[in-house]
């Protein structure tokens, strides 16, 4: 009698510990003009990221856009084992005495000195073909964030399948180093998927993409009826890591 119960427990543990896809929270801080961002950087580096690390949330990415785009934006990428882990960590930070102490200066900043206008919080669920965040090489200094929009949910399903079945392998072949990949579950560009690529520099980025189009497997799958009209828009944002980024 004990053995069947133990077996059921193992299956339950595997499903809810390892069988779930990761959840990524991508926070986008839209900065105010002419307001120094030091207070926000200090909050990330000395309060929020250390507190997340204490809760087992590692490899927190912090980026700014490459180039002189306006308004300036800061991107924070936080990965969780699952959605329940996100809720647990959020609750834990509310009771973290050290975090409260470290974040005090940021929290007490008056509204007229707050360096950002708003925060957009986007949640993304990883897919079976790329279930876990992959920390890039330490010398990665050039990142590309890509968002693929589809005209409906089934079109997005087909595009995700295209990646799961073939495109991830092509990416590996040509040097498109994926950091995370997932299907958005919230945000203002739904339905869509989002992924992040890492490179040593812009030259490595251009070299890798130049190999993608002519790749024989891409040439095969792009002609398949199953994948026609699977997406209708692409957004791409070039990023560079901030000094305290863990990616």
Fill in the keyword field for this structure.
247 residues, globular, NIPSNAP protein, Alpha-Beta Plaits, Dimeric_a/b-barrel, single chain, disordered N terminus, 8-stranded antiparallel barrel, alpha+beta
Task: Describe what you observe in this structure.
By secondary structure, the protein is an alpha+beta fold. The chain has one domain: Alpha-Beta Plaits. The protein is built from 8 helices and 8 strands; from the N terminus they run H-E-H-E-E-H-H-H-E-E-H-E-E-H-H-E. It has an 8-stranded antiparallel β-barrel. Strand 2 (61-65) and strand 3 (73-80) form a beta hairpin. The N and C termini lie far apart (48 Å). Residues 143-246 form the NIPSNAP domain. InterPro entries: Dimeric_a/b-barrel, NIPSNAP. It holds the Pfam family NIPSNAP.
Short description:
This protein is an alpha+beta fold. It has helices at 2-17, 38-54, 83-94, 97-102, 104-107, 153-174, 202-212, 216-221, and strands at 23-31, 61-65, 73-80, 116-126, 142-149, 177-184, 192-199, 233-241. It has one domain (22-241): Alpha-Beta Plaits.
What's the topology here?
Layout: H1 2-17, E1 23-31, H2 38-54, E2 61-65, E3 73-80, H3 83-94, H4 97-102, H5 104-107, E4 116-126, E5 142-149, H6 153-174, E6 177-184, E7 192-199, H7 202-212, H8 216-221, E8 233-241
Could you spell the SSE succession in H and E letters? HEHEEHHHEEHEEHHE
Helix content: 25-40%
The portion of residues forming beta strands comes to 25-35%
**DSSP summary: helix tally:** 8
**Sequence of strands across the biggest β-sheet:** 1-3-2-8-5-7-6-4
Total domains, how many? 1
Please give the CATH architecture. Answer: 2-Layer Sandwich
Main sheet characteristics: 8 strands, antiparallel, barrel
Mean pLDDT: 93
User: What's the total number of strands?
Assistant: 8
Shape: globular
The CATH topology annotation reads as Alpha-Beta Plaits
Indicate the CATH class.
Alpha Beta
How far from one another are the termini?
A: 48 Å
Low-confidence stretches: 1-19
The radius of gyration over CA amounts to 20 Å
Q: Supply the helix-strand structural class.
A: alpha+beta
